[in-house]
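hiii so um. not sure if this is the right channel but i have a protein structure encoded as tokens and i wanna go backwards to a sequence. like what aa goes where. can anyone help
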């Protein structure tokens, strides 16, 4: 695996948790899931988006949620219940960068602070292999989604991703 193209936090976490994956270089202009899939003729249902949510608590608490790109994150019911708060939102690009050190379009749950819970939709785990961000806009990861369960705080969640309205 060419770990040199990955964000250093991601490469270090892959090694620390003995995760097996394949690193793929990509043009940064195609880092967003829809653009990547269209440009590289990759099936959207085989990817997994990492979405950072922020609980409006003092201090702010974060969680990483992984859903298929063909679904939307059930933030108002499922995530609110998982985090145990009434008010939460999608983390801003600035909050995401401060928490992860990663830019939007490359964010991945691998390499996050260990106190950040990682919620993984069952539909992601049912895939034979998924495409994830590499921690930057110039790389992606392909891995068996079961590898994600090696992350500290990783939890399987039924219904985290729901059909778009």
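sure thing!! here u go:
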């Amino acid at each position: 695996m060419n770990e040199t193209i990955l964000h250093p936090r991601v490469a270090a976490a892959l090694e620390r948790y003995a995760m097996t994956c394949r690193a793929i270089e990509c043009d940064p202009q195609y880092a967003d899931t829809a653009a990547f899939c269209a440009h590289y003729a990759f099936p959207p249902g085989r990817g997994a988006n990492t979405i950072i949510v922020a609980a409006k608590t003092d201090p702010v608490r974060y969680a990483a949620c992984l859903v298929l790109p063909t679904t939307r994150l059930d933030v108002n019911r499922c995530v609110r219940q998982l985090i145990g708060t009434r008010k939460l939102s999608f983390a801003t690009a600035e909050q995401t960068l401060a928490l992860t050190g990663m830019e939007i379009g490359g964010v991945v749950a691998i390499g996050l602070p260990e106190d950040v819970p990682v919620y993984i939709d069952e539909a992601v785990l049912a895939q034979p292999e998924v495409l994830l961000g590499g921690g930057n806009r110039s790389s992606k990861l392909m891995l068996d989604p079961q590898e994600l369960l090696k992350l500290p705080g990783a939890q399987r969640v039924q219904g985290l991703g729901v059909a778009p309205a």
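oh and The mean pLDDT is 94.
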